[in-house]
Amino acid sequence: MVHHLDEMKMLIKEEKDFKFIDEGKGQKLMLLHGLFGALSNYKDVLKYFSDKNNVIIPLLPLYDLPIINATIRGLVKHVNKFINYKGYKDLVLLGNSLGGHVALVYALTYPEDVKALVLTGSSGLYENTFGGSYPKKGNYEYIKEKTAFTFYDPKTASKELVDEVFESVNNRGKAIKIIAMSRSAMKDNLTDQLPNIKMPVQLIWGMQDKITPPEVAEDFHSLLPNSELTFIDKCGHAPMMELPGEFNVLVEKFLVKLQNDETSQ
């Protein structure tokens, strides 16, 4: 696992103010990560799709934005600058947790750039942040327990991931930004705006997601007019990490269907 992450780090390109991965050719699939574990979250998705799609992962500047811009809208603005700079069109945005929230607000603000959305454990309606309380600084066991809360199988919370979360919440500058982002996500409720998203949306949800529980997925499904919902059993808040095999197959079916619908028009 570490070896593959090192490979991913080697794939990171830097241009202007942007750090990103851009691999493969074909349908553009942009992955938007959540608050923790930017790269490790999507290593299996990148590996699976980059030989048949153009997979793009912008590293969201969660800790680099000025505090006033440490919001969902601040991240959307950054992603828009990046997309304009690269000239990307017809994107499928795939977002987990906070990344799903960013994808939704992006689709509402710049619908011309987005062909479809894939959301998994997305915020935007309701989320139970860190199991109801903000992580206590300094206590490694507590952070380990709260990171494991993200998953159905606590073993999915690798030492590497726990270390990453522990480092973030113990770094004062980062902790302040994390709190600001979490608050922004909770305030930025999209209930009234979701019916305006007319593009196809695939919702993939863990049946045992404790952070955005299954009823949140049902609410997204009823509010998004052109959406389909699939639950993955024995799976928590991050299906693309916990059960990447099932997750990737579902996303691939959705992408193929999108392509077929286009060619038949």
Poorly predicted parts: none
The residue fraction in helices comes out at 40-55%
Distance between the termini: 42 Å
Rg to the nearest angstrom? 17 Å
The helix/strand series, from N terminus to C terminus, equals: HEEEHEHEHEHHHEHEHH
The top level CATH class name: Alpha Beta
The secondary-structure class comes to alpha/beta
* Fourth CATH level, the homologous superfamily: Alpha/Beta hydrolase fold, catalytic domain
Task: Provide the β-strand percentage band.
Answer: 15-25%
Q: Shape from CA axes?
A: globular
Quick synopsis:
44% of the residues lie in helices and 17% in strands. With 265 residues, the protein is of the alpha/beta class. The chain has an eight-stranded mixed β-sheet with strand order 1-2-4-3-5-6-7-8, sandwiched between helices.
In words, what does this structure look like?
By secondary structure, the chain is α/β, with parallel strands linked by helices. It has a single domain (2-264), classed as Alpha/Beta hydrolase fold, catalytic domain (Rossmann fold, 3-Layer(aba) Sandwich). Helix content is 44%, strand content 17%. It has an 8-stranded mixed sheet with strand order 1-2-4-3-5-6-7-8, with helices on both faces. Helix 3 (72-86) packs across helix 4. The longest helix is centred in the last third of the chain and has 21 residues, at 244-264. The N and C termini lie far apart (42 Å).
